[in-house]
Amino acid sequence: MRYFDDFVVGERHEIDAIYDMTEEEIVSFARKWDPQPFHIDREAAAKSVYGTLTACGTHIQAVVLWLAARLPEETAVIGALGYDEVRFHKAAKLGDRLRLVIECIETKPSSSKPDRGVVKNRHTLVNQAGETVFTQTTTLLIARRK
């Protein structure tokens, strides 16, 4: 188990898992949550500025969470406090192979509850060409060692 006390500002973790953007998943997710033509219709997507199917933003954020859950060590997360600086740099396209890099950018022990602290991480999602697709700052409340 990884606790607040284990986080060091500047540490980076490149998640070993890869997430493949498949047509079935792009279309299925978007049909339910964001049914834009360039997410759900191959022909419409081919005529769009993207030239192919693309994943919707909510899908991309879900992929980030899925990849983050593949860290080799479980984290003693009490809860998420927020997602900030959410940016979509490039479309996540059909056939993309996405990987996640997590960098610790801030740690702060709680001033009112000594059993926890706040950790801010920068999440960077990159495609197979090394291009940044998505970034966000995640603020987590994490238990301290007892």
Overall description:
The protein has a single domain, classed as Hotdog Thioesterase (Thiol Ester Dehydrase, Chain A), CATH 3.10.129. It has four helices and six strands. Strands 1, 2, 3, 4, 5 and 6 form a six-stranded antiparallel beta sheet that branches. Helices cover 23% and strands 36% of the residues. With 146 residues, the protein is of the alpha+beta class. It is elongated.
Task: From the structure above, extract its key features.
about 150 residues, alpha+beta, Thiol Ester Dehydrase, Chain A, 6-stranded antiparallel β-sheet, 6 strands, about 25% helix, elongated
CATH topology: Thiol Ester Dehydrase, Chain A
Q: Helical percent range?
A: 10-25%
CATH superfamily: Hotdog Thioesterase
- Uncertain residue ranges: none
Which structural category do the helix and sheet elements fall into?
alpha+beta
Shape: elongated
Largest sheet: 6 strands, antiparallel
How many β-strand stretches?
A: 6
Radius of gyration over C-alpha positions, nearest whole angstrom: 17 Å
Distance between the termini: 12 Å
What value does the average pLDDT take?
97
